[in-house]
User: Fold these one by one.
Assistant:
Number 1:
Amino acid sequence: MSNELLTIDPVDLQFPFELKKQISCSLYLGNKTDNYVAFKVKTTNPKKYCVRPNTGVVHPRSSSEVLVTMQAQKEAPADMQCKDKFLLQCVVASPGATPKDVTHEMFSKEAGHRVEETKLRVIYVAPPRPPSPVREGSEEGSSPRASVSDNGNASDFTAAPRFSADRVDAQDNSSEARALVTRLTEEKNSAVQLNNRLQQELDQLKRESKRSQSGGIPFMYVLLVGLIAMASFAELVLSTSRCTCPCRSFSKKPLILPPLSGLRLVGGDTKPLFRSGLGPVSVKRRFLTAVARAESDQLGDDDNAKGIDRIHDLQNVEDKQKKASQLKKRVIFGIGIGLPVGCVVLAGGWVFTVALAASVFIGSREYFELVRSRGIAKGMTPPPRYVSRVCSVICALMPILTLYFGNIDILVTSAAFLVAIALLVQRGSPRFAQLSSTMFGLFYCGYLPCFWVKLRCGLAAPALNTGIGRTWPILLGGQAHWTVGLVATLISFSGVIATDTFAFLGGKAFGRTPLTSISPKKTWEGTIVGLVGCIAITILLSRSLSWPQSLFSSIAFGFLNFFGSVFGDLTESMIKRDAGVKDSGSLIPGHGGILDRVDSYIFTGALAYSFIKTSLRLYGVR
């Protein structure tokens, strides 16, 4: 079948078949157009073949190489015929697309995408036979016994070749015996390695299942997560549809496969592949095994399209069950985190500060792990681990010192100077990349969050006109508890939540134009809707809480909350993209790490506090 987007070389995958050896074959894809072309490679036997990369993007008028590796085979087919098939799908991608932007939905014909498909066959090629080992003494004219006989008769000259041939036959038999022993030894070693690998995979599945049942959070972090003040329940639940990270838990409900002729599961029709006290293994493993065991004779040239459609159906069923499991987990942990966050913000004081310090410590650890990741470290030299750990402790102390001293500019400068000295006197050759990433970590993870302490606890003037303050119970602080700092913090939090919520809804309904390549799913239309929603919520809350009194101040405050939220999110997305990871951590199951949840709040606190201290003096802090 001709392909209008890509040139494919070769059109058939040829493997020089050899027993007990992995064999690779290169597939070259050339872009014939002036567009970015995304491709995806599938096979009817994924357990037998390894494709790297199986998805990618070919730049205009350029080429890309795909390496297909066939696993070592124990038996050779009788007629050296293989019925395995490969399917290459390609579609026009957006300009500037990268392999990370390739998704399963891009190759869905149901969505109206024009997908080019090319089928590739697998052909076994017999390797060249090595020459038979023959000793030098058996060659003609080289053996002294072939020219001289015991009694000098000429007839002995005819006996010499027969004697030499017998020696060659005996040597061939000996070589075959040695080859048989070697082959049996290799089979034994391969079986032992396979057994060890399967045992390791089974142990890993058990550990992940235990982590899934226990909620995925170590007990020592439960209290810290409950006190995190940088997120809310509404934002966490609404982020469900935006996050596409793979869920770490396994579904406890078995996958019910549709009736397929030619597919059978290993271990029977109804029993799972492995079973332990923790439940069946993952749906994905069962699906891959089913495809790997597909009857080859059912996938002829005429039925290839039907087999591929069946594979698509199985993938759709698996994706639906995975999304349902992710939604359930996100709602549960969203409720578990959102409620304590509201209590912490209302409490203020040391409760708010200690909770913020705990989240800052975990977030700084995630940041320095991102700096040490493979994607960033390959282009720079990360700081030593002991410097990263010391910086994490310094970042965690900054909010506490801010509450105690009020101003920590001198302390932060001194700490940065000491860290710079530690980097300069380290063993080896110091690098500027180490200094820059460390200083940015102190600023991003430690200094900026301190403005939330200044905002919540530093602005202690009472909001006298707030209606809820007049009815607030005396046991909980009375009217004096509702300060300007508390009202400003609640409005800022609500503005960030409104930005994410309305931007998500607007992007789903009207999104067409990508905002930036850092986060491909963000659109200009969704961003504009998020701006309008943030300003509207800010004005509504300011009217309800009677602060600030000026409409212009409320609009300006909403603008700052919006820009702090958007650029905080993009900054963390840029760090993760360079690091080559989807989430900054795995502390919160289904949501990622601390930085994934509080990225929109990091710059917002500093902007809100600076705006109130500098601009609202003109209108009075009321």
Number 2:
Amino acid sequence: MTMSENQRNLEAGLLLNKNRNDINECRITVAVLFSTFVAVCGSFCFGCAAGYSSMAQTGIINDLGLSVAQYSMFGSSMTFGGMFGAIFSGKVADLIGRKGTMWFGQVFCIAGWLTIAFAQNTIWLDAGRFSTGFAVGLFSYVLMQSCGCSLFYVIGNFIHWRNLALIGLIPCILQVVTLFFIPESPRLLGKWGREKECRASLQLLRGDDADVSEEANTIKETMALFDQGPKSKIMDLFQRRYAPSLVIGVGLMLLQQLSGSSGIMFYVGSVFDKGGFPKSIGSMILAVIMIPKSILGVILVEKMGRRPLLLASTTGMCLFSLFLAFSFSFRETMALFDQGPKSKIMDLFQRRYAPSLVIGVGLMLLQQLSGSSGIMFYVGSVFDKGGFPKSIGSMILAVIMIPKSILGVILVEKMGRRPLLLASTTGMCLFSLFLAFSFSFRSYGMLDELTPIFTCIGVVGFLSSFAIGMGGLPWIIMSEIFPMNVKVSAGTLVTLANWSFSWIVAFAYNFMIEWNASGTFLIFFGICAAGIAFIYAMVPETKGRTLEDIQASLTDFVQ
């Protein structure tokens, strides 16, 4: 009998035994559920490791002074270790069993997390990342991977990268401990010829009242077929009969990785930073949808089938990659600037640009000197000063952060730029005065029990008022009041003014709060009040007007 005939007989025998055994294997018991939970803890570790590089990027680069190349080496070391883990996973499992493999993997995983947590240079960082990669290369399940990734996307916003690495030890230790309470794989025990232990393992998994004799005999027959059949080698895959399967399998894996999925997952924080979207908010959104999207995939694969779902998934990835490409591309806009005359910063100081310059710089000064940066950067200290729990206050702000920004987008189209700016600045003015009186009463020992509530109301009200108008509208108006020929120079000057005064406020804010909290907010109240007068007297309505109309109105103002 030829080798190919032996292989066909082996495959036919395995399919027959699989069909005979399907009914018994469908029985779900507590032991099966617990064993599954313990097994997929390893994949949870993978998710934690995948999410770690995104959330720890800023902290590691700042603390250890890593370059982009060095951090990229750190991030990719896990996949490099995963390659080696995948190569040895089958052999290791055959030698020491499934439980032994998981214990073996967790030794590397625990060592890797500890090495990362206490690393002082890139060598130790890379070694630790490689070690965790080697461990997770031995096991992988999508849902629990998503759970781990989701967890790290959330807590990574609040925890230092060294402590985050130590938290990664928790699922590793959990699996090491719980492995003592689950049985070894019955098939592996059957393969090793340990029939008595194989039956005991099956009995535990199927339940005390189940008859496991038929399943145990099936496993024994299957193992006998393996022993009788020819031993497969890696080169056997390159036979013509396996070519379609090999092309499909390898092709799908190449598509999965070359599509950029690993890059985005490992460094999603840098993508948000590059696009100007708050990394903390973006990672929170991903954390919220991570598990539901995996569950949705499990449901859809049964409803739609593998091929339609793969096509739909890849089409979505294709379209959103294109969307991101266009989002990051400003070539067309820059080409328009290049066609016109080149402006210099001194060109802005001509008389005809004076109103635009005063409005643009004035709005940026008002935006920063109102205290917005100080409150936003150090909101925790404001809550502490007012006696309101910082954790609860930050949670309240986190909940309203997105809705208030969306409200601003809606209102700007309903009300227009100028009315919304006036409303926003008026709100900031009133809530600054409210905070000033709140802290003033506290300093005199009055209304101590109400001051924490007043502080929370004042901070939430101030930041909400800021977000719906003053937070974004100065940038919109700045882009609408300058002619094209000086827009680049104007953007540079106005942005410089914004960041300069942002630094002044951010630097001075803590000193001012320590000096006199009530006086600090009275100063911000005065600036906001002056801002109301400035906007009313100087800032034109730009909604629905052409650049020519706006320039004409500004020219009339000069004359």
Number 3:
Amino acid sequence: MDPSVDTWDLSSPLISLWINRFYIYLGFAVSISLWICLQIVSKTQDRSLQEKSVPRAPQDLMTNGYVSLQEKDIFVSGVKIFYGSQTGTAKVTSKNVCVFLVATYTDGRPTESAEWFCKWLEEASSDFRFGKSYLKGMRYAVFGLGNSAYASHFNKVGKNVDKWLWMLGAHRVMSRGEGDCDVVKSKHGSIEADFRAWKTKFISQLQALQKGERKKSCGGHCKKGKCESHQHGSEEREEGSHEQDELHHKDTEEEEPFESSSEEEFGGEDRQSLNSIVDVEDLGKIMDHVKKEKREKEQQEEKSGLFRNMGRNEDGERRAMITPALREALTKQGYQLIGSHSGVKLCRWTKSMLRGRGGCYKHTFYGIESHRCMETTPSLACANKCVFCWRHHTNPVGTEWRWKMDQPEMILKEAVENHQNMIKQFKGVPGVKAERFEEGMTVKHCALSLVGEPIMYPEINRFLKLLHQCKISSFLVTNAQFPAEIRNLKPVTQLYVSVDASTKESLKKIDRPLFKDFWQRFLDSLKALAAKQQRTVYRLTLVKAWNVDELQAYAQLVFLGNPDFIEVKGVTYCGESSASSLTMAHVPWHEEVVQFVRELVDLIPDYEIACEHEHSNCLLIAHKKFKIGGEWWTWIDYNRFQELIQEYEDSGGSKTFSAKDYMARTPHWALFGANERGFDPKDTRHQRKNKSKAISGC
């Protein structure tokens, strides 16, 4: 057989396809054309269905080419949500109703994610080129997030966004909601609960709008029980909608005292004047009316604000600091709560020393026994919202004591009992030393630095006296915002002042204090510290790129307060938090802390580096008066202190004593430059393979 014939037979199908390729191309083209036509038809049908679902407004409701939103039925097919938070991003879900969730940040400014938008909105609202109908047809709702402790700019961003949108002609579908981080003043107990309550009402309103129902009913208050909308020929409502509108009307009335609207802020006539021509002769009357309404509103807010600031419930009694929501949050963090405003928690260094794995930096610097130290506070409230707070701002804030108060005897008794119960849980745990377990059941030291501002507690002096009567030494930490309380404070074993920054700007950025005169309070607190005769300490927390370059200013503050010791510690990163922008990049290396301390000591000739605790990334600078005969005496003779404080109490405060009266020699291993780097050689250092975040400390 001819091989050329076989080859031709095998390739004949391919040749056939090639000959008929025109018909194949034509088939593909027809198929694609049909698919495109089907897509166009389906989209056209969807658009027509949407147009049919919204009834056309009657011709007589047309004004200046626009349909009045108040005069036509409103339908909703979706929601567009914008998040303006420090850690959030903008998220879009659908159309028609825009919801703005905006937080108020430092000094009443918007967060970084909302800064540009707020600036544009503010400029547009006051720019005549945009006009008062620029956003006409847009429907919106606003929920603000803030903290009422900052009374001067509480939810300022939310109020402004609501106002600016309204000034540009947008239509509010619901009153503005306001979430409050201050659990004491929060209407529903927490900011999350505030949002849930507002969200429930908002969803109910959306459902009503989706059905084409109006927000407000007649209610029978207008002439002959008929609304103007009915007189203009609006469509009849469906059966049963009147009852639902009455319920919604009641809902709206409940919101009014708590959630102001832009109409309320500017007055109803002012809103009309935005879109209508006003005679110059009538302008004075309109402005007088607006000013009168504004004055009345401010007086009403002042009265209601005074009542809220007192922190009293409906019966006129002071409210408890620990609300149910706060109790739940703190309990999850391991707190043992006491009464209505106190708490105790087991420090991780207490657990470490029970196992013989080393003590905290206070053990290295001052000779405390970490396994016998109780970390507590008689006040969970604080006057600052520091960026490095290891409690993630779950505690309440305030500038004065406005809660009901527990007696110091009860607080101390329950604090010791709760501490002992937590120690008991380590009985039989592998690695726990029996002798230290027994010693740990007897509290010898009290670190009043758990959380909050202990010095805010009105009976702090009585509480300290009870501690000393029980032979418990006292280490009290304050944030330098209460100078009068520092001056009135009775002697403590060691008094700390947190010096987190050395300039007004950086202190405001890092500590975020509630007081408007925070800087003057800060300086007055340092001056009050200088007048103390007992041991005083500056506590410096270094935040990389924020406060490590202020050496000269720190030196000036040292001269102002003249502390006995200066603790310099690198900031501890406690994980991500919506309340702080702190990251691991802000945590300095130990070598960087050492370099900072060396440079600072060069500027303060009366001080030298005394001790080091590498594990805590911390160093101690001590006044040279504690260096006697070439040896450092930074440790504390606790028995001698108890004798001195007893003599002070017996003499009615006339027999005073100084820091040098109860000092003790510092061991060699605790000194700066020692090979141990501050680790007690009696213990065994334990290196964990999988390091987990630790948010406890003292």
